[in-house]
Amino acid sequence: MHIPDGYLSPQTFVPLYGVSFIFWTVSLKKIKQELSAKYIPYIAMAAAFSFLIMMFNVPIPGGTTGHAVGGGIIAILLGPWAAVLAISVVLIIQALVFGDGGITAMGANCFNMAVVMPFVSYGVFKLIGGSAKGGLRFYAGAFLAGYIGLSAAAILTGVEFGIQPMIASGPDGRPLYAPYPLSIAVPAMAIEHMLVFGIVEGLATALILKYFVKHEAELVYAMKEA
User: Fold this and answer.
1) Would you tell me which of 31, 122, 155, 161 could form a disulfide with 178, CB atoms 3.0–4.6 Å apart?
2) DSSP code, position 3
3) Nearest to 29 by CA among 82, 78, 70
4) Is the per-residue pLDDT at 70 higher than 90?
5) Is 146 exposed, middle or buried (0-12, 13-18, 19+ CB in 10 A)?
6) Predicted confidence band at 69 (pLDDT cuts at 50, 70, 90)?
7) Closest by alpha carbon to 150, among 81, 205, 98, 207?
8) Cβ–Cβ < 8 Å for 109, 1
9) Mean pLDDT of all residues belonging to the chain
């Protein structure tokens, strides 16, 4: 889902930079209010995990990649606001140091993977898992949190690609940025993530949560909010 430079128009990437900046600002305030200093190492470890899992990139037709993110489990363990910060840091480092994702598209990449995914995943987990602290419903909620969160981010990325021909074309009608319409961009992003990477994300979310519930349940943010 790392969008490179040249695929999004300024009409798209500038507003998404602004929205991401708002979430970065709020996340810093929320973390100071809600999490104690002992959670800082866990945020760092969450960022490292997200960085590692996102390194397994598979090219997808249309100019982007498919991969898991780790946003679901980070949101469940540390809260969605902490996930915003952890994953954003990873995406910024990947763009600036490794060239994975464009500089102009950094706001869009952060919005898709560090904002939309954690909040969708957390909402799904709370909706399905409810106040349970174990059992089938609880872990099904974890799996679906990762699966749906990643799928939502992928579909949103496809939408951002697909609207480019409609909002940014030359005098001759040729697209100036991503050339594929919604009918191509959205399925290209959705199918890969729903059939492969979403399942990986869901399984990782459920299995890692199971470990923490068994060994360090007091650290699981979503269980404190139950």
Assistant:
1) 161
2) P
3) 82
4) yes
5) buried
6) very high
7) 205
8) yes
9) 92
Backbone φ, ψ for residue 41 (5° rounding): -60, -35
Banded model confidence at residue 38, pLDDT cuts 50, 70, 90: confident
Residue range 192-206: average pLDDT?
93
**Residue 72 and residue 90: Cα distance in Å, rounded?**
15
Residues 6+ apart with CB under 8 A from 64: 1, 2, 3, 4, 7, 157, 161, 189
CB–CB of 62/180 below 8 Å? Answer: yes
> Sign of torsion, CA 130 134 136 138?
positive
Residue-range domains of the chain with CATH: 10-224 (1.10.1760.20)
Q: What is the mean pLDDT of residues 44-64?
A: 82
Token pair for 212: 């923490």
The helix (H) or strand (E) run that includes residue 60 is strand 58-60
